[in-house]
Amino acid sequence: MQDIIQKINQKVADAQDDILKFFREIVAIPSMDSDIEAVGKRIGEEMTKLGFDDVYVDKYGSIVGRIGDGDKIMLFDSHIDTVGIGDPEQWEWDPFEGKVEDGMLYARGALDEKNSTPGMVYGMAFARDLGLIDGWTLYYLGNIEEWCDGIGCAAFHDWEGIHPDYCIIGEPTNMKVYRGHKGRIEMEISCKGVSAHAASNYMGDNAIYKMLPVIDAISKMEKDFVPHEFLGQGRVTVTKVSSVSPSTNAVPDECTIFIDRRVTFGEDRPYWRKALEDLIPADK
User: Alpha-carbon distance 45 to 48, whole Å?
Assistant: First the structure.
């Protein structure tokens, strides 16, 4: 085993410049708003260069690479889309070119999670070169996950008919092996008000104001969460607030909040639906 580790380390050292160049190039390609065509093409070029057995775009639009044809299937999953850059004026450097500081690259998507792709792509090629994948088929899947959790992998499973026995996910884990993760529930709460002209706001019922006690209560929920011994602390976050109003000079008659809940074992959707319903004042 030690001999194999030394050989892998040597191959990484020999290819270090190519790996880092590949990493910088895919980070430099914007892939926001689920637009992964350009970055997927660049990843496909690298897999072709490394001699992958098959490189293609699947029905969902993900970039796929395959090495081997064994009975056991291992999937290396990495989402290659990113969130936006927010206010460009708040960046002190180009968010796509990035900057290197103390050996770290700071750029949009450099951590979450384009950094996993070079290691996966080159790692698969190294495993093949060292004769480590007899009886295995390895797939790389570069997909869209930032805006639609799990759909890219589900499409690969359902539409492409690839059913992996094992899966390695490229989310950042501080270089530790994680054997599980919290579940996620996304929920909405809406309330109705009565619109009126802002100059006569007393004639209306502001839906945003009606929602404020609920937002405040959600912000205090975590203090009562009991951490799970394996999955750790559950989380709940109001991630978006939207309102409906006839115009910007009118009292809004509808307000909706979006809630992201990271759950541990035993916390299912009905449980959390009731927990949130209990936060709503009876008179709202």
Answer: 5
